[in-house]
TrEMBL record:
GO terms for cellular component: cytosol. Keywords: Amino-acid biosynthesis, FAD, Flavoprotein, FMN, Methionine biosynthesis, NADP, Oxidoreductase, S-adenosyl-L-methionine. The keyword Zinc-finger does not apply. This is Methionine synthase reductase. Residues 11-154 form the Flavodoxin-like domain. One of its GO terms (molecular function) is FMN binding. GO terms for biological process: homocysteine metabolic process; methionine biosynthetic process. Its cofactor is FMN; FAD. Residues 320-575 form the FAD-binding FR-type domain. It comes from Biomphalaria glabrata (Bloodfluke planorb). The keyword Lyase does not apply.
Length: 635
């Protein structure tokens, strides 16, 4: 049923989102609108013609991402098709005033194409922009564009909708300068607390996974508090190896790489040292996000193996069901002394109905490294409750609007299940997350540093020390030993763990019943000076490397399967006309899809009619050293 916006200050706020980022930003806009005397009617773009008709709107804010090769997200595709109809009159949107925030990544072609296409078509159809369009780049940090764009959006909405600007309530707050008399003492305490923390983690024996799975079912249901704080303790000179068992849920084959915990130097870690340029200054930090989740632990067994993956939440860009495929071979394409290790995996798709072509991509459903999850539980003193049943609920009368349990998290499961399969514990914490951590930190100099990192004045510090260094939640917790957040706050702020996309590196006409994929194994050594307090591999590439060690060494007796699905693909395909010349540029593993392009053209070349000339085919490839990492050299 279509809804009319008759209230003063009311406007339509819509989003199109593939991974959830655009939706999260739109929800944040809706949350903050109330403080400006505005009322956002939040809708998804796929609700067009059901809950709204764009031609009847007068004020519209759009937040939309781009996916694939410049494609609109699946939940925006219908809307884009509607406005692109050639039969629409050129004054179709004459009553509409709008603005657009586009999300994209300059590491890929067609940056923010969906937002740009909507913007261009709106103009053609007579719509008018009341506020400039923003294009945020995830390659360098969405917040660089998103934060200032949001700052100007609300006054622009107030002006257009004739809302009294005196009703504005700041979406930020000011913090007082740090008392410098505390600085030296607090800085010394940070290092002492840090040393004690990892000392404790190293000396305390970590229970095995089998011990974790033992739940006392004989006692009646009892509520277990999760408010105990871990003793402030932290880092030893030696490397900590955490015993790791087979990962929970979809991954039951092979061993995982263990995390190594390393000692930071006593002083001078850039991540934790307050910035002298901000000394004595007030800081403008985000308002504290209102808490909205409550976790209740029950001393009762809970079988998580029966749960749907991520509560049955739809996977982004899925063009097929999730299928378990066997890995039949794993070949290392680089020399042992190459800068990066590159793997070529061959997947057996026989008897599986997978309609893929050169240019297709697939998603691999992966989970967090179990030893890393265990280390997080140890740091937060959650080990004793990690495998007990936990029930999530929304806090009654929470200040957060539209508060719900995230759809990708089951309301009843265990912390181990949630943190292993549902939440991305590697993603650099957002500024809102850092602001939340401030209130869980007791050391004043640690509090000040976290405030700097999430402040408007410290925007460059956040980019340099958090985003560019890919700092994880666990890195932060070791860097700031007095920070003890409740587990509910982590569940509220950690993003969804998404499948990892990989280009298909083969052609079904050339290799039937087989999919090849090629990738670099990401390895991040422990280096506290860069903010990395433990060694790690890429979540998915590290797991694939670990489980295929036997295949890499030539032992093909072990059966290994992984869960995959095909991703949607509309435009990235080789030209059907073989007489057309083609230029392909793919350095490193970027060559992957073009291997399939070349295989297809090679097979079809013989099908050219007499007199037809085969189009010139050029592939530009780059590597560091032709003797170490020249991928597919023989091919």
């Amino acid at each position: 049923m279509l809804e009319k916006r008759k209230q003063k200050g009311q406007y339509l706020l819509v989003y199109g989102s593939a991974t959830g980022q655009a939706k999260a930003i739109a929800e944040d806009i809706a949350e903050k609108s109330d403080r400006y005397g505005l009322k956002a009617d939040l809708r998804c773009l796929d609700e067009s013609d059901k809950k709204f008709q764009v031609e009847q709107e007068t004020c519209m804010v759009i937040v939309v991402s781009t996916t694939g090769d410049g494609d609109p997200p699946e939940n925006a595709a219908k809307f884009v098709r509607k406005i692109k109809r050639k039969t629409l009159p050129l004054d179709f949107l004459r009553n509409l005033n709008y603005t657009i925030l586009g999300l994209g990544d300059t590491n890929y072609s067609n940056f923010c194409r969906c937002a740009k296409d909507i913007d261009s078509r709106f103009e053609q159809l007579g719509a008018k922009r009341f506020y400039p369009t923003g294009h945020a780049d995830d390659g360098v940090g969405l917040e660089i564009v998103v934060d200032p764009w949001l700052e100007g959006l609300f006054p622009a909405l107030q002006k257009f909708l004739n809302v009294d600007q005196d009703s504005e309530v700041s979406i930020c707050e000011k913090t007082k300068p740090l008392d410098r008399s505390l600085s030296e003492e607090s800085q010394n305490q940070i290092h002492m607390d840090g040393t004690d923390l990892i000392d404790k983690i190293i000396t305390d024996r970590l229970p095995s996974m089998s011990e974790h799975n033992k739940v006392d079912g004989s006692s009646p249901e009892s509520i277990i508090s999760n408010t105990d704080q871990i003793d402030s303790t932290a880092v030893c000179l030696e490397i900590l190896n955490i015993n790791s068992d087979k990962i929970e849920h979809v991954h039951d084959t092979g061993k995982e790489t263990q995390c190594g915990l390393v000692l930071p130097p006593p002083v001078g870690i850039k991540l934790v040292v307050c910035d002298c340029s901000l000394e004595g200054k007030e800081l403008t930090v985000p308002l504290l996000p209102p808490p909205f989740l409550n976790a209740t632990f029950i001393n009762d067994a809970n079988k998580t193996d029966l749960l749907e993956h991520q509560n049955g939440c739809k996977l982004p860009n899925a063009a097929s069901d999730v299928l378990h495929v066997g890995i039949t071979s794993a070949k290392v394409l680089t020399s042992h002394d190459a800068v990066k290790k590159t793997l070529l995996l061959q997947l057996n798709t026989k008897d599986l109905k997978l309609n893929f072509t050169p240019g297709s991509s697939m998603g691999i459903v992966c989970a967090n490294n179990s030893s890393e999850v265990e280390l997080l539980f140890k740091r937060l003193k959650l080990t004793d409750v990690a495998d007990k049943k936990v029930e999530l609920s929304v806090i009654e009368n929470t200040a957060k609007r539209r508060a719900v349990i995230p759809p990708h998290i089951p309301p009843t499961s265990t912390l181990r299940h949630i943190f292993t399969t549902c939440l991305d514990i590697r993603q650099p914490p957002s500024k809102a997350f850092l602001r939340s951590l401030v209130n869980s930190t007791s050391n004043p100099i640690e509090m000040r540093r976290l405030q700097e990192l999430c402040s408007k004045e410290g925007a460059s510090l956040y980019s340099e020390h958090i985003r560019e260094c890919n700092i994880s939640l666990l890195d932060l917790l070791f860097a700031f030993p007095s920070c003890h957040p409740p587990v509910e706050r982590l569940i509220e702020h950690l993003p969804r763990l998404l499948p990892r996309p990989y280009s298909v590196c083969s052609c079904p006409e050339y290799k039937p019943d087989v999919i090849d994929i090629v990738f670099n194994v990401i390895e991040i050594p422990g280096d506290p000076e860069k903010g990395h307090y433990y060694s790690r591999k890429g979540i998915c590439t590290g797991w694939l490397d670990d489980i295929t060690k036997c295949l890499q060494s030539g032992d093909e007796t072990e059966q290994i399967t992984i869960p995959i699905y095909l991703r949607t693909n509309q435009y990235f395909v080789p030209p059907a006309d073989l007489t057309k010349p083609i230029i392909m540029i793919g350095p490193g593993t970027g060559v992957a899809p073009f291997v399939g392009f070349l295989q297809q053209r090679s097979i079809r070349k013989d099908c050219l009619s007499e007199g037809q000339k085969y189009g010139e085919t050029w592939l530009f490839f780059g590597c560091r050293n032709r003797d170490k990492d020249f991928l597919f050299r023989l091919e």
